[in-house]
Amino acid sequence: ILCGGLGKRLFPLTKVTNKHLLPIYDRPMVFIPIMKMVEAGIKEIMLVTGGQYAGDFLRIIGNGKFLGIKKLHYTYQEGEKGIADALSLAEDFADNKPLLVILGDNIFEDSLLNYINTYKDGAMLFLKEVKDANRFGVAFIKDKKITKIVEKPRTPETNLAVTGIYIYDSQVFDFIKKLSPSERGELEITDVNNMYININKMSYRILKGWWTDAGTISSYNKAIKLFKQKVQNEE
């Protein structure tokens, strides 16, 4: 679970804490991807964080036993170097096995268990139709295959956003090592995904239930409303 970054688009809320520790209705944001991993049968989790509030994760989550985690690892990302850089810190943790990756600000309805059970090799992306696709990486699909992903296009040709949920095999770390920083000075996960597409090792699933990120004030508020409704429906 990747929980780095400064959350600048959520200032001033993130001047006093990490974005992923802000509340989503009745719990810290990071509890939700943890819950989704545990629900999917993931027994061992690594949390990648950074910035000056990294220690707050340990105070809130501890060893994670109360959330159903069997084994919890922490690692620290120095600086703002992008999603792919954060993922690279999990290479030893992955131990040459496939791993499920969730960005810590992704709030969604679907269980991932059935999707995971269909995974074979390479990379698997999770897509969702959205109205504001220009905020995300956008997937182009032809003959039921992703042909390319374009990061934050001004005028998206499709509305299929690449969510912050991925499954990768161990080759992902080799791809990350080949990356050069983008204009933003970051190692881009879109570049990694396009490498998988180029070797025909990319599959995808389209999420059926609701999904949102929580990276902007409007999407953060949307996440709270959606998750609140989910909790109340379960009560």
Give a short synopsis of this structure.
The protein is α/β, with parallel strands linked by helices and 235 residues long. It is 29% helix and 27% strand. It is built from 8 helices and 13 strands.
Please describe the topology of this protein.
Layout: E1 2-3, E2 23-24, E3 27-28, H1 31-39, E4 44-50, H2 54-61, E5 71-77, H3 83-88, H4 91-94, E6 99-102, E7 106-108, H5 113-118, E8 123-129, E9 137-142, E10 145-151, E11 160-168, H6 171-177, H7 189-198, E12 202-206, E13 211-213, H8 217-234
Description of the structure:
The protein has 235 residues and is an alpha/beta fold. Helix content is 29%, strand content 27%. The protein is built from eight helices and 13 strands. The chain has helices at residues 31-39, 54-61, 83-88, 91-94, 113-118, 171-177, 189-198, 217-234, and strands spanning 2-3, 23-24, 27-28, 44-50, 71-77, 99-102, 106-108, 123-129, 137-142, 145-151, 160-168, 202-206, 211-213. The strands form five sheets. The chain has a four-stranded mixed beta sheet. It has a three-stranded parallel beta sheet with strand order 1-4-5. Strand 9 (137-142) and strand 10 form a beta hairpin. The longest helix is centred in the last third of the chain and has 18 residues, at 217-234. It is globular, with a radius of gyration of 17 Å.
